[in-house]
Structure formats: structure tokens, C-alpha cells
Amino acid sequence: MERWEEGACTRINRWRWTIGRGMLAIRFQPIPLQKSINPNNPLSTNATSSMTPTSSATATTASSYTAPTPTYTPISDCPQSNNTLYTSSFASGRSGTVPASASLNFTRYCDLKSPLTGSNAVVLSEAYAYSFVDCIEVCASLNFWAGNSQCSVAVYGATAGRPGNCWVGSTNATVQVASLAANEGTDVAVLNSGDS
Questions:
Q1: With 70 as the cut, is the pLDDT of residue 110 above it?
Q2: Could you tell me which CATH number the domain at 84-195 has?
Q3: What is the DSSP string of 72-137?
Q4: Which end of the chain is more exposed for a tag (fewer CB within 10 A), N or C?
Q5: What's the whole-model pTM score?
Q6: Residue ranges per domain, the chain?
């Protein structure tokens, strides 16, 4: 908000808006105040002003709009990534100081049944991801920002449709990968046991 002095009166800009043809127009007009604004906190003021509108907004009929859907094809790096370690990019510290208790190391497995379909599982989030790594990052982000290991499983199905092909969550028991049935096209990342 811009402020300037003019004679014995302080003025501030007041905005008004109109919507027309799907566009928003904002115009600023000076309004005389009876007292000056506190320069240390422009939001708290003892000033009073005349707040009569200079014009009224014209209502228009809203139209519906559907945003275009990206046409990228989700990919899987399986079977090359099967039984390999993945450390989240959150471990680099680019998003801030890494909490000591944030678990960010996962092991990737290919073509397994989701451990999040069991009765002892909790799905924390669902997303649409374009790669297995992106899906793991969704899980790792929950751990990074919460500073814990609340997300222990990421499940990715590259061929699943919107709204989600990535499900992240946790199970009440340690995931026994050897006991998971085969399920072609479903990739599973499990938090490393030393990190939970």
C-alpha cells in the first residue's frame, strides 16, 4: 500500500475491482484520511476515512471452465530399480534444515501388491505422480515436514488414472516384503527399517 503526504492530510490508496469478460481490473484511488497512519504498522491505525464506493461492481454470469489436463505419460523405472535404495531429495537440505527424526530412506520394489490395502494400513495421501520417484517424494515430504516417520509406504501404479496413481501411508506392522503377492505394474517403496 502506497502512502504520501499532501498538505495537512495523509492519503492512502483504496482499491476497487470490477469483473468483465473474465478479467479482473483493479484501480487505485486516493482517499483523504482524518488522521495519519502509524508508519510502523500500516495495518493498525487510528485513522477514519470516508469509505463510500465510487462505483459499483457489475455482476456477470459465471461460466464454467475446465483446465487442460497435462498429457505427460507416467513412467516406471521398474524393473531396473527393483530392490534398490532411494534417498529422498529432502535429505539434501534444499527445503530447509533436515529434522534428525525425519525418515527419508526407502527401498524400492517392483510388481508387488500394495501393503496399504490391508486392514492394518492407513492411507495418508493420494496424488497423481509422473514417476515412481515422485510418488516416493510425496511420502518423504510428509516425513520431512512432520519431522518423523509417519509415512512408511509409497505405492505407485503408472497405468492408474486420475485422480491418483500414488498412495502413501503407513501400516501398524513392519512390512514383510517377502510376504507380498506379485502384482504386475504396482511398485512399492518401503521405509528402511533403520529409519522408522
A1: yes
A2: 3.50.4
A3: PPPB--TTTTTTEEEE-GGGGSTTSPPPTT---EEEEE-SB--GGGSTTEEEEEEE--SBHHHHHH
A4: N
A5: 0.65
A6: 1-60, 84-195
